[in-house]
Amino acid sequence: MHPARLAILEILRDGEQCVCHLEAVLDYRQAYISQHLMVLREAGLVEDRREGARIFYKVIKPDVFELVDAASQLCGEEAHHASHSMAKGCPCPKCSPAVESEPVRVTEN
How much is the pTM? Predict the structure, then answer.
């Protein structure tokens, strides 16, 4: 499997993520990520849902992680499951939750 698709799956191991989050974590262009997500979707491993302008992806066959882990062991690589829950500069709802602003005070002159 392509290294970019493996990296996407590792991020999705943490649960559903939006494309902008994948961009921020992987530092790849949106078009490049979308091409790999399309391959994963066509393989029946992930599904997407739209929420406004954002598209979220999640793994629908979690058994794929056992396969990824087994392949890593066969290649002599140590499996590392770092959390990707927040990414610097990511505008997604998980990384930049809406901050409630203080009410605006109106003063009379």
Answer: 0.76
